[in-house]
Design brief:
Length: 200
């Protein structure tokens, strides 16, 4: 159950930090120490999020699983962009979601999504007559809302026209989600479908 106010959510985030050992017992009030000892960590975690904030973020996004606009990244090589955006490990359900979306991705027969565990990403290469596209999916912690996440897709497009070769980098984000809910799989499958539908 989410917190009823942002103040309550902040209190429970502090309690959770004490439980995890990120904050020393000596630096918090006796009330926080007592809460950290007597309340189960799973219950504390539920109260670290403020429901109204999550709902407001989703409402502003328009649709529950909205895809942000695709933006071009200029002046940075693809490898650098990937290094700067450190992902979080995908769980089994997320890996199965990618596996279920391999057929027909990017307009082709079967596209192999490759799980690169050491870099916490899912990649796919798609080649057409005049271009090669590399898709890299990551799960990222949302910069403005701790405890909430986005899926990201970074896309490198290398076009080989008769005159010259171009190399462009793009990215797009899914809507925000909580990592410990079933909603994330709906967000992920919709995100993959929308990238597939809009393409580049």
């Amino acid at each position: 159950m989410p917190a009823q106010s942002e103040k309550q959510a902040r209190l429970f985030r502090l309690v959770r930090a004490v439980q995890k050992g990120d904050v020393s017992n000596k630096k918090v009030s006796p009330q926080v120490r007592k809460m950290a000892k007597t309340i189960k960590p799973s219950s504390v975690k539920d109260f670290t999020k403020f429901k109204e904030i999550i709902d407001l973020i989703k409402e502003k996004a328009g649709s529950k699983y909205t895809l942000s606009k695709t933006k071009e990244i200029v002046g940075k090589p693809f490898d650098q962009v990937l290094r700067e955006n450190v992902g979080i490990e995908f769980d089994k359900d997320e890996l199965l979601a990618f596996q279920s979306k391999q057929n027909g991705f990017a307009g082709f027969g079967k596209t192999n999504f490759i799980h690169k565990k050491n870099t916490r990403e899912i990649t796919a290469d798609v080649q057409s007559n005049d271009s090669t596209k590399t898709y890299v999916f990551k799960k990222l912690e949302n910069n403005q809302n701790k405890g909430l996440y986005n899926y990201a897709c970074f896309i490198r497009v290398v076009s080989d026209d008769s005159d010259e070769q171009t190399d462009k980098v793009f990215y797009t984000l899914s809507s925000i989600f909580e990592n410990d809910t079933n909603d994330k799989i709906k967000v992920l499958t919709d995100f993959i479908d929308r990238i597939n539908q809009y393409g580049l």
